[in-house]
C-alpha cells in the first residue's frame, strides 16, 4: 500500500528537539507550501500547512537549523494519533533548497 | 515547488457527482489508508483518512463506481479553502487495485 509524499515547503516553526521514553530523538515542525498546480486544464494557486515530524538519528542533525528555510521533503502521511485524525508528514528525507 | 502524493487507499464514501457554476464536474470522496511503514529502523502501523476530490472530465467516468474499492491515486495536497486548513487530496490519476 503506497503512501509517499514529495513536498517543497518553508519551515514556519520548529519545536525544540525532544526524546521519546525509548530515547528516540523527535523533531516536530510546521510547514507551509505554496505553488501553482494544473487541474482540469486550469492553473490554480495551491496552499497548505502541515505538521511534520522527523524521528531518529537525522533529528539532532537538523535541530535548530530548519526554521525559516525552504526544504525539499519526502515521507509518508499518518494521522496524528488514534484519536486525532489530523494528518502529519513523517519525514524520511530532508534537503535544503537554495534561494 | 513540488507537491506530489502517491497513495493507495479504500474509498470509504463517495459524494454525488456535482458541477461547479462554470460547469466543471466534481467528485468528492473520503479515503482511508492503512499500511506498515519503516521509520527510524522500526516498522509502524500507519493509518490516515483524507478527503479527496476529482475535478474535470475524469469525474463523470468514475462517479458511483469508487465507493468500497481500493484505488491507487496520485495528486497534490491543498487546504480545503482559504478559511479551512483541512488537507484535501486533489486527484490527478486514479486506478483500481485488484483484490
From TrEMBL, chains A, B:
The record's listing under NCBIfam families reads:
PriB_gamma
Q: Which Pfam families match?
A: SSB_1
Entry's Gene Ontology BP terms: DNA replication, synthesis of primer
- PROSITE patterns listed in its UniProt record: SSB
Task: Describe its partners and assembly state.
Answer: Homodimer. Interacts with PriA and DnaT. Component of the replication restart primosome. Primosome assembly occurs via a 'hand-off' mechanism. PriA binds to replication forks, subsequently PriB then DnaT bind; DnaT then displaces ssDNA to generate the helicase loading substrate.
**Name of the molecule in the record:** Replication restart protein PriB
Q: What does the UniProt function comment say about this protein?
A: Involved in the restart of stalled replication forks, which reloads the replicative helicase on sites other than the origin of replication; the PriA-PriB pathway is the major replication restart pathway. During primosome assembly it facilitates complex formation between PriA and DnaT on DNA; stabilizes PriA on DNA. Stimulates the DNA unwinding activity of PriA helicase.
Return the similarity comment: Belongs to the PriB family.
Question: Which species is this UniProt entry from?
Answer: Paludibacterium purpuratum
The record's InterPro entries line, in alphabetical order, gives: NA-bd_OB-fold, Primosome_PriB/ssb, Prisomal_replication_PriB
Q: Which UniProt keywords apply?
A: DNA replication, DNA-binding, Primosome
An annotated GO cellular component: primosome complex
One GO molecular function term of this record is:
single-stranded DNA binding
Amino acid at each position: 500500500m503506497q503512501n509517499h509524499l514529495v513536498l517543497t515547503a518553508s519551515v514556519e516553526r520548529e519545536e525544540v528537539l525532544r526524546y521519546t521514553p525509548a530515547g528516540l530523538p523527535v523533531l516536530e515542525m510546521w510547514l507551509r507550501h505554496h505553488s501553482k498546480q494544473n487541474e482540469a486544464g486550469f492553473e490554480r494557486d495551491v496552499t497548505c500547512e502541515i505538521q511534520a515530524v522527523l524521528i531518529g538519528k537525522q533529528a539532532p542533525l537538523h535541530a535548530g537549523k530548519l526554521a525559516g528555510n525552504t526544504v525539499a521533503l519526502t515521507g509518508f502521511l499518518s494521522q496524528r494519533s488514534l484519536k486525532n485524525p489530523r494528518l502529519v508528514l513523517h519525514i524520511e528525507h530532508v534537503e535544503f533548497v537554495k534561494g
